[in-house]
Design a protein that fits this description.
The complex is a heterodimer of chains A (about 100) and B (about 475).
Chain A lengths: L4 H10 L9 H19 L19 E2 L9 H5 L5 E2 L2 E5 L4
Helix pairs in contact in A: 1-2
Chain B lengths: L2 E12 L24 H4 L8 E2 H13 L3 E2 L2 E2 L1 E5 L9 E5 L5 E10 L2 E14 L3 E7 L2 E5 L6 E7 L6 H17 L12 E11 L9 E6 L2 H20 L7 E6 L4 E4 L12 E2 L6 E2 L2 H8 L6 H12 L3 H7 L3 H14 L3 H19 L10 H12 L5 H13 L4 H7 L8 H14 L1 H8 L6 H11 L6 H12 L2
Parallel strand pairs in B: 13-14
Antiparallel strand pairs in B: 1-11, 1-12, 3-7, 4-17, 5-6, 5-16, 7-8, 8-11, 9-10, 12-13, 14-15
Helix pairs in contact in B: 2-5, 3-4, 6-7, 8-9, 8-10, 10-11, 13-15, 13-16, 15-16
The chains are: A alpha+beta (about 100), B alpha+beta (about 475).
């Protein structure tokens, strides 16, 4: 399976990655190589194997339903570029 | 052209846990912005989500209540999209292995029963809130809601009208409240839904292209949004156009749905298993433990109300609408130990009206079950008439006294002594010879005049049935 330049640009846009136009062809070739490798693995008959959701052979630990976090808004908001009235401010998202 | 509507609902129920699904931050509604958003909810580097046991138990409880299979192993996945109220850039959800699989629910529409399939229910985290009021051209973000546990309940496309969709959603709403897994507060967004709507020509077996209407947070909006959308699609197709698969928003002010252009291209969520979370395993022990906590469910309670209290389908449905109302009704019946239908009439009638007027929930009723029962006993044993009981009830609603105390204080005890009533009738007949003569000459209508006079003379306290009988006997003598 091979990716064309358009597919590469679309994936980059979905992941919000900025890529140089002159590297697009390289990315397309490299990513296609990875997909070919996946295709190769897909050829193996795995019908009798359970799909693996996680490499560790363990199950999820559960925590009790208790409130253990306290309000640290002051400290978190020191990292933010813009805050007002306790809110984080971001560029307007509704046109 | 005859058209058929096809609807599937995705209902989001906020689970009533104290802390978030993957962090120990509080979930209480209405806190100051961002005071309940911890490092995990903010998606800061180096944090790890740990699953809330109670959220899992609640999902299992729901699954058992709809007769679904609980997955022995389910997996959390990342749903990737970019939006400022989703700090991590992905929502932790479940994709191909949800915790609850294939159950069903029965709804009643226009007296007919219909079974609606539930494809799945999965656990996920809620996003934060974007506040689009003007902050100098910026949007404000409150992440208190980020990480609140949600159970997304997905129906099969089995619903065929807006009415059915509303009936299904109401039934689901009652169920999650019975199970005490969701407070059901729709105004606060604790219970909301997305509707997938399409139309097809009658007899066609394939589905039409669907539009998804997002974030409907009232039963009325669900009905109106679907009705609008169905009309829009039919007009579009009949006009030679085609429905586009897209996400739409319902505008309740204009009563229309419109396309959400900003999310048009965001449908590629690139799900993959979340490496931060191990598979969730649910064993028989946990399932049995949760099963033991299941309350009597709405359908079973309705059935029992019909058989134990000889109530009509309608009465049983109204009285079991919430667990609290059903409990109140049963407390009244137990305490009054009289006609269960009389109790039903009062709980659904005068009491409900008073609650509505005062905008109170049944649990905050100013007349509790015991006091209401005390009043009903006095109706049942003929101490007061139903009409005077209404007056006593109003006084009870205003003050804390018992029915007996009010009846005594205001001298409302019904007159059931025949000789006393007869004496009053004799006097009225003597005082109104003209009317008596006309009545006896065939003017039957005047019977009402004598009833009125007798009631006036007894201040409404004569037992109406007894008065009618005695009056008839005397006048016709």
């Amino acid at each position: 399976m091979s990716l064309d330049s358009e597919a590469v640009k679309r994936i980059a846009w979905l992941a919000r990655l900025s890529i140089d136009e002159d590297r697009v062809a390289d990315y397309a070739r490299d990513l296609s190589g990875i997909l070919d490798f996946v295709e190769q693995m897909n050829a193996v008959d795995t019908g009798s194997a359970m799909p693996l959701a996680h490499p560790l052979d363990q199950s999820q630990r559960l925590r009790p339903d208790e409130v253990v976090e306290s309000d640290q808004r002051e400290r978190f908001q020191q990292q933010a570029p813009a805050v007002e009235a306790g809110l984080y401010l971001v560029p307007k998202v509704i046109e | 052209m005859e058209w058929e509507t096809v609807i599937g609902l995705e209902v989001h129920a906020q689970l009533a846990t104290r802390s978030k699904i993957f962090s120990g931050a509080a979930t209480a509604y209405g806190a100051e912005p961002n005071t309940q958003a911890c490092a995990i909810d903010l998606g800061l580097p180096g944090v790890l989500p740990v699953l809330n046991r109670e959220a899992v138990r609640m999902a299992v409880k729901f699954g058992l209540a709809i007769g679904a299979r609980i997955a022995p192993t389910s997996v959390f996945a990342r749903k990737n999209y970019f939006y400022p109220d989703l700090p991590k850039g992905y929502q932790i959800s479940q994709y191909d292995l949800p915790v609850v699989a294939t159950g069903q629910m029965t709804i009643t529409v226009d007296g007919a029963l219909k079974t609606i399939g539930i494809t799945r229910a999965h656990l996920e985290e809620d996003a934060g809130k974007s506040l689009h009021e003007d902050f100098h051209g910026s949007t404000g973000i409150d992440l208190n809601r980020a990480g609140t546990p949600l159970l997304e309940i997905v129906s099969e496309p089995d619903l065929r009208s807006a009415k059915e969709a509303v009936a299904y959603m109401k039934k689901l709403h009652a169920l999650v409240r019975y199970l005490e897994i969701c407070d059901g507060n729709m105004q606060e967004g604790s219970f909301r839904c997305d509707a997938n709507v399409s139309v097809r020509r009658k007899g066609e077996s394939r589905f039409g292209t669907r539009a998804e209407i997002k974030n409907l947070n009232s039963f009325r909006f669900v009905e109106r949004a679907i009705n609008f959308e169905v009309e829009r699609q039919i007009e579009l197709i009949e006009g030679g156009g085609a429905v586009v698969q897209e996400t739409r928003l319902y505008d309740s002010v204009k009563d229309e749905t419109r396309s959400m252009r900003s999310k048009e291209e965001a449908n590629d969520y690139r799900y993959f298993p979340d490496p931060d979370l191990l598979p969730l395993e649910i064993g028989a022990a946990l399932i049995d433990e949760v099963r033991a906590t299941l309350p009597e469910l709405p359908d079973a309670k309705q059935q029992r109300f019909r058989s134990d209290y000889a109530l009509s389908d309608y009465d049983a449905e109204v009285l079991t609408a919430t667990r609290e109302l059903a409990d109140f009704y049963e407390a009244v019946v137990r305490s009054a130990n009289c006609d269960a239908k009389l109790c039903a009439n009062w709980v659904m009638g005068d009491l409900s009206a008073a609650l509505n007027e005062a905008n109170l929930e049944i649990t905050a009723s100013r007349v509790d079950a015991d006091r209401l029962a005390g009043l009903l006993q006095r109706i049942a044993d003929d101490t007061i008439s139903g009409k005077l009981a209404k007056q006593v009830f109003e006084t009870m609603w205003q003050e804390g006294a018992t029915a007996d105390a009010i009846i005594e204080r205001e001298g409302l005890r019904q007159i059931t002594d025949s000789s006393a009533i007869e004496a009053i009738i004799d006097r009225i007949m003597a005082d109104n010879p003209g009317q008596l003569a006309q009545y006896r000459a065939g003017k039957d209508k005047l019977f009402g005049f004598f009833v009125g006079q007798a009631m006036k003379a007894t201040q409404g306290k004569a037992n109406p049935q007894q008065l009618n009988e005695l009056l008839k006997r005397k006048l016709d003598a």
